[in-house]
Amino acid sequence: MVKAILFDLDGTLADTDPLHLLAWQEVLKPYGLKVDPAFYRERISGRLNPEIVRDLLGLEGEEAERLIATKEARFRALAQGLRPTPGLPEFLERIREKGLLWGVVTNAPKENARHVLEALGLRPPLLVLAEEVGRGKPDPLPYQLALRRLGVAPEEALAFEDSPSGVRSAVGAGIPTYALLTGHRAKDLLEAGAKGVFRDFREALNLL
Q1: Which family does the record claim for this protein (predicted)?
Q2: CATH number at residue 47
Q3: Is-contact 195 174, C-beta < 8 A?
Q4: Active-site residues: which are they?
Q5: Tell me, what's the pLDDT at 183?
Q6: Residue 4: is its pLDDT beyond 90?
């Protein structure tokens, strides 16, 4: 029996990936890197910022922190007037009607997560930030911590993700996981372990 629903944030509760793509394009252009949608999917999406800049540019320490801060400030400037993924308000209402627990598990930095949630008018009862956990997706630890905090077993939860990295994290914690087709191919999401894929939450309502 399902007792809890866990959501990723970026690309799941709102289609923020186009904004992240634009922000990364702007900050990486001076380094001679051209970030197109395929590059974004393969090298950036679903990863922690320090890993991204270390992998792409070999940067660590203060220079990496400055670049990340610039990128995230640009993202927040772009992320005005966000709209929830279609069907999300109805899906959350179904969660409330059924008395289910729910929360958000994200690799997003704290300031970004709060900015997006506030823009969407959402106050999740549980928010797990990878940067506070110490390990980010695809490591299962963020989802394992969410389960512990909610007091539910993996098989009593459902997770919703949008990236192969996120799917691997939730599946690694033993949670049945579904994926949204906001940025990645169905094939890649299913290969990562998703039980199924949806265009948006309108197609997922029958799960509850």
Answers
A1: Belongs to the HAD-like hydrolase superfamily. CbbY/CbbZ/Gph/YieH family.
A2: 1.10.150.240
A3: no
A4: 8, 10
A5: 86
A6: yes
3-state SS assignment for residue 37? helix
Q: Give the model confidence (pLDDT) of 62-94 as tens digits.
A: 999 999 999 999 999 998 889 999 999 999 999
Write down the pLDDT at residue 57. Answer: 93
What is the C-alpha R_g of the chain? Answer: 16
Phi/psi of residue 86, nearest 5 degrees: -50, 135
Please state the pTM of the whole predicted model: 0.89
Q: In total, how many domains does the chain have?
A: 2
What is the span of the domain harbouring residue 102?
A: 4-15+83-207
Same domain, 31 and 106: no
Mean pLDDT value across residues 106-112: 92
Same domain, 109 and 154: yes
Residues 126, 166 within the same domain = yes
For 108, list phi and psi in degrees, rounded to 5: -65, 145
Q: Do residues 101 and 8 share a domain?
A: yes
Q: Which of 21, 58, 57, 23 is nearest to 42 (CA)?
A: 21
